[in-house]
Fold each of these.
Amino acid sequence: MSHLITLAAEQTIYQAQAVHQQLAAALREHAQLEVDLSQIEEIDSAGAQVLLWLHRAAQQQSCQLTLSHPSPAVRDFIRLLGLQQLHSALEAADGS
Amino acid sequence: MDLELAMQSFLQESAELLDEMESILLDAEADSITAEQLGALFRSMHTIKGSAGLFGLDEIVRFTHQAENLLDQLRDGHLQLDAGLSGVLLRSHDHVKAQLAAVAAGQVIPAGEQDSILADIAALLQQPAGSPCAVTASTSSAEPPDDSDWLLSLRFGREVLRNGMDPASFVRYLATLGQIQAIASCCSALPADDSFDPECNYLRLEIQFRGAVDADQLAGVFAFASEGSQFIISPRAQLSSHLQQALQAGDAAEQQSCRDIWQQWGLWQPAADSTALPAAVAPSDHKPAAPAADSKAGRSSESRFIKVEAGKLDRLINLVGELVIAGAAANLLARSHGSSPLLESTVVMAGLIEQIRSHTLSMRMVPIGETFSRFPRVVRDVGHELGKSIKLEISGADTELDKTMVDKLADPLTHLVRNAIDHGIEDVQQRRAAGKPDQGHVWLNAYHESGSVVIEVADDGGGLDQQRILAKALQRGIISSDAMLSEQDIYRLIFAAGFSTAEHISNLSGRGVGLDVVQKNIEALRGTVEIDSESGLGTTFRLRLPLTLAIIDGFLVEVGSSTFVIPLETVVECMELPATPGGAGMPERLQLRGEVLPLLYLRPFLELDGEPGRRQNVVVIQTGSQRVGLVVDALQGEFQTVIKPLGSLFRHLKAISGSTILGNGAVALILDVLALIQHATQQEAGRYGQEQDTCPPAGSRQPHNNDTSSGK
Amino acid sequence: MTRQHEPEQYLSFQSGADVFACNILQVKEILEYHRLTSVPQMPAFVHGVMNLRGTVVPVIDLAQRCGRPASTILRRSCIVILEAGQAEQRQYIGMLVDAVHEVISLTADAILPAPAFGNHLRPDFIAGVSHWQQRFILLLQMDKVLSVEEMASLSAPAAMQIKAESHCLMN
């Protein structure tokens, strides 16, 4: 049973620390994790880095991570900075 | 008001850019031009164009745009800086200068020779094929000249996020300047374990960009990124060096992920040797790393200087002067209280204040080179005009003097240099006949000498013709036929108003300004002009200027109840005035180690009250080769202080050059050593003349007889 | 015109036997007399220069400037600092007086034009006359009294007739 976390509207440097801790805890406790990105209205580099970290940490800890339903803000940001890793993670989620 | 200020700074900045452009163009005629210089040339026109646009100066924008196009082609190697192109650029420079001058004066921007320059530019732009560098020109010259391709490798520092900056903001801004053709993040540095700090930045960006920008503009985009960031920005044409540089940073994982990105973009092809150059290297890519390094060096040299309004500096210097006085007062107080810890702390403070002061004052000092740098152009132009080939040699350009002085020297120096070329240097036939090389030499030299700045303008021309000067002066009624003149006096005649020794009036001397103006300008700076001339070998004009700076190392002397300051640099030695053999009277000169030292008694000279004490002292002062002994009551020793101008009420004072405030708050006057020495030597020469009865008193219209030069 | 009846303030001071006054707006400050540095080769009315918080300020002896004998420095001697000169070259000038009296208010109609004679003073120095405590006050035209231009020209070598020989070198 996948644990679902829905990220809040703002994912910026102001939330990064807290979100990171929340996600780190979830990673430790769950073997399957789904993170819903649909509510994100604003994201910056810090927010994106948390997602990147989550992606890599999940791989390392053999956690099955799904990043789902990226909002337009997330898609725009990925395009802006050319965040290929996130892009492919999302595509993988779309494909499954 | 603000707009006015902005306009002022635009005009000033433009003037500086134009000066830089000119000096590069003149420099580059002889040597090959560097990429940095090309960049600077382009930037000058580009920046002026941009700023002129802000002020709605469409005429200037239109013209500079064309000049910029030309420089762009030059920078890209499609054109070569030959004499023709250099000429067009210099004319463009002059035209823009004239345009700006009109703007500054609030006049209508003159058309001048705009159309002919524009036609020349157009002609040059249309035929770049002849240049040998145009190997890759065919494709890129078809594109609009403004757009260029760039590679950016951006390693933002770890702290950028915490400092409130987001790499994304830079990218968004970059996107407004052109088109981001490809972008990829490399996040190999981002740790997957607990060491991840969500407020640290781990992103590195690789970007392909196209836009009408130059390297400086691009660098400017990222100027605000904090320390620890590392940006490599190169034109697309310098792909290989860019990739090499970009790979130098980061660990193996980062390098690999960058290679992956470049490979995806087709910029890099994996080879057996991982350090092999990419296949796409252009053959013209012969300057590895140069542009990036250049733009960095350029930026850092820009930020080494801060422009400060002169008035602010003056106020600061005044305040520091006050601080010195207040510090001295505190020290006196501590002394009177006899508290040694307090005394110690005031001494420490005094040392610091001293350092503050010397640093503050040095801010006013600028190298004379700023003024000298205009002369290659002057020499080139005047030489062209007169058909003379002239080589200018500059030395001592780093000699420092007060900023206000530097500004006021430009005109007189220009005049002397023009004069040297026009009247000093002979034409080629004469030079050949005299066995001299065809090319004439003009020297500009500056150095410090006993408290003065000396600036020499020398030529290797025919020298001054004394007989011709005398004849001319007689003809003009400047002297009477029975005048007895020393060599120096004869030379000085050329400074008389309305004097010209040239047989023909050339275009240059037809400006209605004579050497008398030079003389006036230099005197206004309390300086003197000396002339050395050797027939057939050349002439040297030697300007000797006081270091009328804000500071003075002074030597305090007392006459009666007054304290005077003598600039320490001019003081040679001090001694007690020996008792006269006869007992009474005031000897007019002193035998000092076999030399005659004329004496000047300050008390009668300055009409000071009181009777001289039994013991009097002599301060030997010197400027140039002239020495004079000043007779004063007492010596008080050295003192360093800030010069305060005396104001226009005292502008006619001859023996006083300024004032200063002593530690006790009283004002002391600074003696004008040049004027005193002049007075004393003239007085001495007069006496000498009377005694010898060979030198009758000077006639009313003739320069004072000055015998010192023959006594040398 | 009501403005004519609005009084203006003047600072009155003593110099020799005369009471003078000048508009208070021109006065920057009043200082007790302290020793000045005299400047050689200047006309007698230039009493010297003083240090006004780091600025060197010339001090004019009002009595001598008005053609009277030099002021004697007494206990009540003061230096009145005024602002003089044209807009761009405004500068502080000190004026040595024997005593400063007080600030008085004068309406425009209390100020009379100077009588044509009997003032023993250059007419252009006088802005008007008035009365104060039964005494006659001369209102000074400070722009003229402290005209830097004029005072400087009076100290020019020709005017001072100082050793002309020392100045003819470059002529």
Amino acid sequence: MKRFSIFLRTFLIQGFWNFSQMQNLGALFVMDTTLKRLYKPGSDAYLRALVRNMETFNTNPVMSSYSIGAMIRQEEVLASSKKEDFEEQEREWRIIRATTANTAASIGDRLFWATLKPLSLVFCILVLFASEIQVIHEEIYKGEMLLKVFLAVLAALLVYNIPSIAVRLRGLKDSYQGNEENFYGLINLNWNKAITFLKTLGQIFTVFIIFYGIYIVFGNSSLNPDSIARMSLLVAFIILSIFMKKLNIPNIFLYIIAAIVFGIASFLA
Amino acid sequence: MGALLLFCAVLAFLELDTTYLGQVLLSRPLVVGSALGFLTGNFFIGLQLGIFTELIYLDFIPIGGVVPPSGAISAGIAVLMAHIFAMDIYFAFFIGILCGIIFSFVERKIRRYRAKLLPKIERALYEGKTSIGKVMLQSIIFQFLAVFAFALVALTIFGPLFSLINQDIPEKLHIAFKFSYFVVPWVGLSILFISFSTKPKTD
Amino acid sequence: MKIVLFRIDNRLIHGQVVEGWLPSLDVGEVMVISDTAAKSNLMRKMLRMALPKGYGLNIFNAKEAANYLKEDNEAKVLVLLEDFHALEILAENGILPQVVNVGNTKYEEGKKEYGNGVFLDEKDLSMIKKLQGKNIKFDVRALPSSLSVRLG
């Protein structure tokens, strides 16, 4: 199997995202090289494989490789299976495709979207703090910053992309060589442990950022009624935002409501 | 005008990464904000708008086909508003958020439209009238043009509208929006902390 | 047994459940009701893998599930159903939830879309009518933070 070209194609797995069958054509695009390798284009077997590979598909894009490798393997089994086994093997193909996709999505959404993405933001803010660019401060930073910001953004991209590209590549190989016994290679890495570790790391760094941020913004201001009022309003907002989270209301709405309420209040005052 | 088109094109290209092409986070508000900030010469403003947008968007995760408001659009439009129409950063941020929400409805329409086209494309693929590579290319070009047009329309509607009333905005409203803007990172950091909570407690 | 959420989701355990619902609910155990999963060894293993550590998991077919759900204990459960058919079997066996969250159903040609990822045909709709007659309410939404779409 041409691993590298298939790997590159996985970056387009969401290229035809649609509401009825999600990533179906994207998955076909990734499988296309394999189908052309195994069957003569235009032949009955090819057309049947084409239809099969256009069925509904949805998974986390980064972890999709854990489904793709297993699908390629089972496609090879199908291409060489005897007529009487074919239906059974095709049913098996469907189960492998759906279960690897769902499990990979469950792990991938937690690891990449919910953990590594925010963690990479944390690293970016830390690099900015280290270069004394106090990005949460009201004052516009005037110093030379091109290189520092470039490094901070690069840090954010690398923290996310090094593991994600490694998983994309490894997933193809592991799931291709995998089987039911080792969960199509998913068992090779301890996902839960990785997620717990990264989340804990994220929490520690976030606490640091919060305290350092308070120091930057309020450290130099003397205690007067104005600064106390501002600080208590900030605390009120943080409590409100936690409350919103509990009510499952996204916080951009808290911001929009705040802007509108303050706007109206400023006229009434 | 030429610069405006270029900025919209850059935004549209970066936005593709959200879903259709890549998912390597070139579309994250942090990157979109800094990139457009760099191009427009407002580097710090771009960076700050990017980071604030990203913090306030932490609630949204694109899981299983849910279409959240677009952080890329929010950060991009905000930076461009601030640059092209000399909009104050806190108003630009607000308009950016609104555009991000509006765009998610457009995105839903697009995905529904694709679903509608799907049977026809599947038939064409089956009959060998097109190739899957071509379908992907067309889909991505279409998405690029859609985002490009959206950004252009949003800027040409909200920008002049703002310029029209800019002089008459009372000082009080400036203070209100400014304060809500500087609440954003604190709200964002508390969401960031919650987003790292591990539940249930694992052994 | 305290059932915290009934959810119909054809994909069973995946991102929306583990990252969207579980963190926002007080749940100790997930129960999957699916005839296919109950029969397939591979699916059972993969479902366990998909669930974060620390949650209990039970996989049943619809008939067995009804008996289990009647057991009297303190467990807090999120119940995942494969499709409306599974819900109908539960109802026939005396399990009548007040609200059922509909997260995702399988797309097939001729089905109409009712909210994000939920596709229904006439057969589904008449089954839903029947269940609504038994005072079951349906709440169509993918994530806790999504807007709810009403059925019927």
